[in-house]
Design goal:
The chain is an alpha/beta fold. The chain folds into two domains: 161 residues, Aspartate Aminotransferase, domain 1, CATH 3.90.1150.10; 265 residues, Aspartate Aminotransferase, domain 2, CATH 3.40.640.10. The strands form five sheets. Strands 4-10-9-8-7-5-6 form a seven-stranded mixed β-sheet, sandwiched between helices. The C terminus is likely disordered. InterPro entries: Aminotrans_V_dom (IPR000192), Aminotrans_V_PyrdxlP_BS (IPR020578), Cys_dSase_SufS (IPR010970), PyrdxlP-dep_Trfase (IPR015424), PyrdxlP-dep_Trfase_major (IPR015421), PyrdxlP-dep_Trfase_small (IPR015422). This is Cysteine desulfurase. Keywords: Pyridoxal phosphate, Transferase.
């Protein structure tokens, strides 16, 4: 049984790890230290069992059949929606199943595009964009929350603007204030950066956007798995996250939208399951959320995601967040002591999510990743789908280590010890602290 401590203890983590068979693996003869949960988290047995049980005993098309198994499948499917809705403080009707967060954001962006073409009637006019309107994002966005808005701007003639990041790759509400104007129609940004670990002040930013009538779209991929979310407190209009980053399966994502907005937003994916009446000339669509769920649904995945939510809640989101903060600070402190390491984002002592991206002077991130992998350390390398952010920081790629509820302090220490060996292994020139700028030793 887990302790009742305000943060996860060593013994708690060891108990949790028993639920994750993947963590017992060895890689290149070394115990696996899985430090890539920011990309895809491992799944506990309860989540695997929930999906398997559904497929073994309840597998059927939902919302269609009149037989008993179809009814059971539909009930489990909608119970999963209610569970995920409660997880973020929403009503079930405000939760749309998507294939991932990228799909969810595209659903919103292309809904705006359809409204701009006159689809959806008078109720959809609030989403229509024209030349002179502005879409605001940030320079730190994941491509999934940038490219769809680029396409929307190109389709409608609206202007895409961005909040520039500071020299450390982060930004603050004050940096956005002067860019949010009466021309701003949409403000889309990430709750937590997948590179810097920066946590945006969402409620403050939402208030600024709403004051000029703009709608707020929040990418919660890096926050939903790690911290308590409440859409009412955040005051966002749309919010997206993916199942595979929060102990759930791939192929399932979530879009939250205010009920009145979802009912007015034109769908962009059409077909069966989302209609009321179809003639050879036209179709009429169901209310949300079904109006956005065309075709066969990811039913077993939704059931498994609901179980992942229950698992996270049984551990405690506040405890998970506190634990990850400890691990992040441990990584930051350790990396700051290694010559030639540049931490991306703010250094130790600053609030951030449980991930740290860094650059090793003189060694490409891919080489760093291979070196760490040889020692059983699984990290992420590349631009992390944030090319503009990396370009702004003068980088092509970085190495990212991300912690989760099952990460141990020993694994973090293994990472630090291995990173300290990288530059010597590849013959990179020795670098002294005196030769580096503050950002290069983790204090940017």
């Amino acid at each position: 049984m887990l302790s009742t401590a305000p943060h996860l203890t060593h013994d708690d983590v060891e108990l949790i790890r028993r639920d994750f068979p993947a963590l017992t693996a060895t890689v290149n003869g070394e115990p696996l230290a899985y430090l890539d949960s920011g990309a895809t988290a491992q799944r506990p047995l309860s989540v695997l069992d929930a999906e398997r049980d559904f497929l073994l005993h309840h597998n059927a098309a939902v919302h269609r059949g009149a037989h008993t198994t179809a009814g059971e499948a539909t009930e489990l499917f909608e119970d999963a929606r209610a569970t995920v809705a409660a997880f973020v403080g929403a009503a079930p009707e405000e939760i749309v199943w998507t294939s991932n967060a990228t799909d969810a954001i595209n659903l919103v962006a292309y809904g705006f595009a359809n409204a701009s073409r006159g689809r959806g009637g008078p109720d959809a006019a609030r989403f229509a964009l024209i030349a002179g309107d502005e879409i605001l994002v940030t320079e730190a966005e994941h491509h999934a929350n940038l490219v769809p808005w680029q396409e929307l701007a190109a389709t409608t003639g609206a202007t895409l603007r961005f909040v520039p990041v500071r020299d450390d790759g982060t930004w603050e509400a004050e940096d956005a204030r002067h860019l949010i104007t009466e021309r701003t129609r949409v403000f889309a940004f990430s709750h937590v950066s997948n590179v810097t670990g920066f946590v945006a002040s969402v409620a403050e930013l939402s208030a600024m956007a709403h004051a000029v009538g703009a709608l707020v779209v929040l990418d919660a991929c890096q926050s939903a798995p790690h911290r308590r979310l409440d859409v009412a407190e955040l005051d966002v209009d749309f919010l997206a996250f993916s199942g595979h980053k929060m102990l759930g399966p791939t192929g399932i994502g979530v879009l939250y939208g205010r009920r009145e907005l979802l009912d007015a937003l034109p769908p962009f994916r059409t077909g069966g399951s989302m209609i009321t009446t179809v003639t050879m000339d036209s179709a009429e669509y169901l209310p949300s959320p079904q109006r956005f769920e065309a075709g066969t649904q990811p039913v077993s995945q939704a059931v498994a995601l609901a179980e992942a939510v229950r698992y996270l809640e049984s551990v405690g989101l506040e405890r998970i967040e506190a634990r990850e903060d400890e691990l992040a600070q441990r990584m930051l402190d350790g990396l700051a002591e290694i010559p030639g390491i540049r931490i991306i984002g703010r250094g130790a002592g600053s609030p951030r999510a449980g991930l740290v991206a860094f650059d090793v002077a003189g060694v490409h991130a891919h080489d760093v990743g291979q070196f760490l992998d040889a020692r059983g350390l699984a990290v992420r390398v590349g631009h992390h789908c944030t090319q503009p952010l990396h370009r702004r920081l003068g980088l092509i790629a970085t190495t990212r280590a991300s912690a989760y509820l099952y990460t141990t302090t020993a694994e973090v220490d293994r990472l630090l010890a291995a990173v300290a060996e990288v530059r010597a292994y590849f013959g990179a020139p020795a670098v002294g602290v005196s030769d580096l700028g503050a950002s290069d030793v983790g204090e940017a």
